[in-house]
Amino acid sequence: MSELDPLEAYCSALLANLQPSARRQLAREIGTGLRASNAKRIAAQRNPDGSPYEPRKSQTLRRKKGGIRRGMFAKMRTSRYLKMQASSESAVIKFAGEVERIAEVHHYGLRDKVNRRRSLEVQYPERKLIGIPAGDISLVEDLVIEHLSR
User: Fold this and answer.
1) Is the predicted pLDDT of residue 118 greater than 60, yes or no?
2) CA distances (Å), 35 to each of 30, 118, 143, in order?
3) 3-state secondary structure at position 46
4) How many CB atoms lie within 10 A of CB 75?
5) Contacting residues for 123 by C-beta, under 8 A, at least 6 apart
6) How far apart are alpha carbons 132 and 123 in whole angstroms?
7) If pLDDT is split at 50, 70 and 90, which confidence band does 70 have?
8) Hey, which bits of the chain come out as E strands?
9) Contact between 80 and 89 (Cβ < 8 Å)
10) Burial 81-103 (b: 16+ CB within 10 A, else e)
11) pTM of the model
């Protein structure tokens, strides 16, 4: 059972009465809100359940010169790579392009090559990038109620 099933049961009759263009607009508003919420959560380096991401392994060589200057997934959470698609039936948040493969490796904790030249494979820890925490369910409810009250 999905965590959105109670919300779907509550809103399905109300949303069925809307025109497809109004449903698409509502899906766009929900998708934009969820995309911003996920980007903020990725910046805070938190899983959807609130637990922190497993930190990077310490790399003594990088501390000497030219160390790590950005937090994890700094570029991935930008609107260039974290995309939102909306239709009258759904709102989808996903990563675009080559970033999608990298996000999948980190999201599920898979093995991947570090770079193309060396064939060194590393087991990455699981860091949930996209998800719907409990706070986002209330955000969706508020957006639906606000949209229907207009």
Assistant:
1) yes
2) 8, 35, 14
3) strand
4) 10
5) 109, 110, 111
6) 25
7) confident
8) 82-86, 91-95, 111-113, 121-123
9) no
10) bbbbebeeeebebebeeebeebb
11) 0.81
Whether residue 129 contacts residue 109, with contact meaning beta carbons closer than 8 Å, is answered with no
119's tokens: 């064939």
Q: Which amino acid is at 130?
A: I
CA distance 133 to 38: 9
Instruction: Say what the pLDDT of residue 113 is.
Output: 86
Structure tokens at 100: 């999608």
Token couple for 78: 């930008």
Residue of 35, 58, 66, 67 lying closest to 132 (CA atoms): 35
Angle between helices 134-149 and 20-43 (to 10 degrees): 150
Contact, 111 vs 121, CB < 8 A?
yes
